[in-house]
Design a protein that fits this description.
A hairpin with a 2-residue loop joins strand 2 and strand 3. The protein is globular. The protein has a five-stranded antiparallel β-sheet with strand order 1-2-3-5-4. It has a five-stranded antiparallel β-sheet with strand order 6-7-8-10-9. It has two domains: about 90 residues, no CATH class; about 90 residues, Gyrase A, domain 2 (2-Layer Sandwich). Helix 1 packs across helix 2. The protein has about 210 residues and is of the alpha+beta class. It is built from five helices and ten strands; from the N terminus they run E-E-E-H-E-E-H-E-E-E-H-E-E-H-H.
């Protein structure tokens, strides 16, 4: 009898992958000697399904700075969980097709509402300072909004109104790049996460192609 793979506890789900035959893809969390690790998994047995999983793994490594932990597992270099951040990263990775170019996102964005360029600059102890390229009226408010958005999206500690930090004490530039682009629209992103949390469980092999 074949050995059953312990894939851990599911923490996020893409019920229909639009880039590959509408298969269901889940993100699972495991605790082991390496700390917290994660596995991207599908029960689908159709040809090419594993290649799709590999492409999501690759995107999570590039976009979020995750490491290959062996045996199909991923981890953050710090070994911490960063639960909300990794869920956001997984959803962003699944939005990319298998042939899409993947690169780390910049630490500066154009805030469309204000027209400001807003940046996250790494500091010490895993902190990031949020700044704008102008001190015009309203800039401080947008800076506070983006900092607050980062804190909510990534479960970061808000040290100051314009500064957030990872509780692991390490900087995660790629991960900040993923979160930063969503931070000005934090309300819509949180609604998306709530909808994802209400989705059904990952279908068993007999329920997939």
């Amino acid at each position: 009898m074949g050995q059953t793979l312990d894939i851990g506890r599911r923490i996020e789900l893409v019920p229909m992958d639009v880039h590959f035959h509408d298969i269901t893809i889940g993100l699972y969390r495991q605790e082991n000697a390496q700390g917290t690790t994660f596995r991207v998994h599908t029960y689908s047995q159709i040809d090419g399904a594993q290649a799709r999983i590999d492409s999501v793994n690759h995107a999570m490594r590039v976009l979020g700075g995750m490491e290959d932990a062996g045996e199909g597992l991923l981890r953050f270099p710090c070994g911490a969980t960063h639960l909300l951040s990794v869920k956001r990263l997984f959803l962003e990775a699944c939005k990319l097709g298998m042939d899409d170019d993947v690169s780390m996102r910049p630490l500066t964005i154009l805030d469309k509402k204000s027209g400001l360029h807003i940046s996250a600059t790494p500091q010490s102890n895993g902190a990031y300072k949020i700044t704008a390229d102008s001190d015009e009226k309203g800039a401080d408010r947008r800076i506070r909004l983006v900092a607050g958005g980062l804190a909510k999206l990534g479960e970061l500690e808000q040290v100051e109104e314009d500064q957030v930090r990872f509780d692991c004490g390490m900087t995660h530039d790629p991960l900040i790049g993923v979160l930063l682009v969503r931070a000005p629209n934090v309300r819509s992103v949180m609604r998306e996460l709530e909808q994802a949390a209400s989705r059904g469980v990952l279908a068993a092999p007999s329920a997939q192609n």
